[in-house]
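note to self: the first set is below, dont mix up w the second
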Amino acid sequence: MDNLFEEMFTIEGIMGALVISDDGSSEFTKFSSPLSERIGDKDFGVFIKNSINIEALKGAFDSSMETLLIYEKIRLYIRKIKSGYLLIAMGMFVPVAMVRMNCQIIIPELDNFKKKKGLGRFFKNK
């Protein structure tokens, strides 16, 4: 799944990405090391996952598919996907349009990645 987020991390100021399933389990976590150093926590993905109330997220996404949370030094872009939520942590000056565009490219691939299990992931359907 790392290769899905390669282009996202080429955008200057992207600090990390986190995919959370509907039940609250973390399916993918990748954060830059400078972010972990500033926070003082070795696993910032666990920190964010524990800070977010999944039930509150479900209630917030009744009518919308995305939201942007703005804090003092960080912004969190949260996007609803079929299997849960995609969170992108970014700096204050990252162009959100670039993040949205990358998410639109990544989300169909995430849905396909989630569906493939067992031996079926080795064979392509034509």
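second set (the one i keep forgetting abt)
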Amino acid sequence: MAKNSPKMRKIKLENYSTPEKSATYQKQRTYRLWLGNDVTVCKTSEKAIITAITAVNDELNNYLAEINQMYIDYFAMYRRRWFILDPENGNKEIEKNVRNCLNEIDRYLNLIVERYSFPNGNHFVFKHLNCIFNEFQNILTAFIQVDTKKNNYGEIQSLKANIKRVNSLQKEMNSLGSDY
């Protein structure tokens, strides 16, 4: 990387526990990385835990990039539907819901990259990523409501495929670290 290249926003988990030498349980005598998805990665050496943290960070940043692209795509979907979300068509609440979801996603993305290094950062990274997935599902479900009113069958099928994509990615992310 060039010296003057700008830093990119990213997740960089750093918090892990060191071994308790006098602990009764073997697990407590290891380096432990607690993830916010109920997975604890245990390693016997600091080098091994650092390697695991690097792998987790790489995967989390891949999810972050994919989520950001999905956010861009769903925002564009919202703008394409903006004209038919006219309150006079009975879509005021749907539009309000979608706009709130988009705002929450933006807020969660910023919280993730600003607070990952906080003492409970590992937990909150996963919590906020899961909240984003839930907001995506809310947006897509709202779009299905709008497209159902318009009898837009092709778009409804595309939206359902997007919901499956969101669910699959969320499930995959929530199992992160279990194979380390």
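remember for set 2: The chain has four helices and two strands.
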